[in-house]
Fold:
Amino acid sequence: MNITSCTTVVFSPTGTTRNIARAVAEATGYAIHHVDVTYSEAASLECGRNELLIVAAPVYGGQVAPIALRRMQQLQGDGTPAVVIVLYGNRAYEGALTQLADFIASRGFVIVAAGAFVGEHSYSSARYPIAAGRPDDADRAMAREWGIAIRRKLDAETEPVAVDVTGVQEPQSSPLSKQRFAEFIVSLQQGKVAPLPVAPTSAPDMCTHCGRCVEVCPVGAIAAGDELNTDATLCIKCCACVKGCPAGARSFPTPFAPVLSQCFGERKPPVTIV
Structure:
């Protein structure tokens, strides 16, 4: 195929998804145009047959972040080859990879490669680490190797050949880890666990009102001058404000954090198909 350029379309509040998408794109060797929909919807974007589209989004609760899909509504292909990537926090991505592939395919693209990578969980903290520091060097190396393989495939084909995304084998947690997590969910449903927080909070004695949380929030849930409060009706619990606060003033004390840290500490590798 005569591919001349590559466009990445990414939703990535904490930067982990963007990290992988760029590693893959750079490894293809094509000229790259980056489109970031983290903070706003993509303008109408039409991709031709001589372009490669790389779409990447995080997984929230086993599904692609709904706001990511809404902000990608304007994508339109014409039999254009596309790569889909989901990034999850080491528990499970469930049906998210197929969901993203179906969404992109419905817009005129041919899914020529698909992959699921692990990134630091939104709820991860120093006290309760969950895939902390990922994607790391090993993850990025695998992303680059995959990008090279994608380029080889496209160079060898005259027309884009779709992959069967359902053929990607999701890494599995141990039966004991799954059981413990399931027991936690049951306890939560029975009201035996403290109520879930509706949004991150700020410590008044630590907040410097620097405005960084306002800048990194992808949905405008924090207003300038009112950094101590978060609009729970808008918050998507991505915790970009928590991770981005230079004073460490923001937190999201969810009971999910210790359970996820305990149950899903075993390293899971990226999985791809091309």
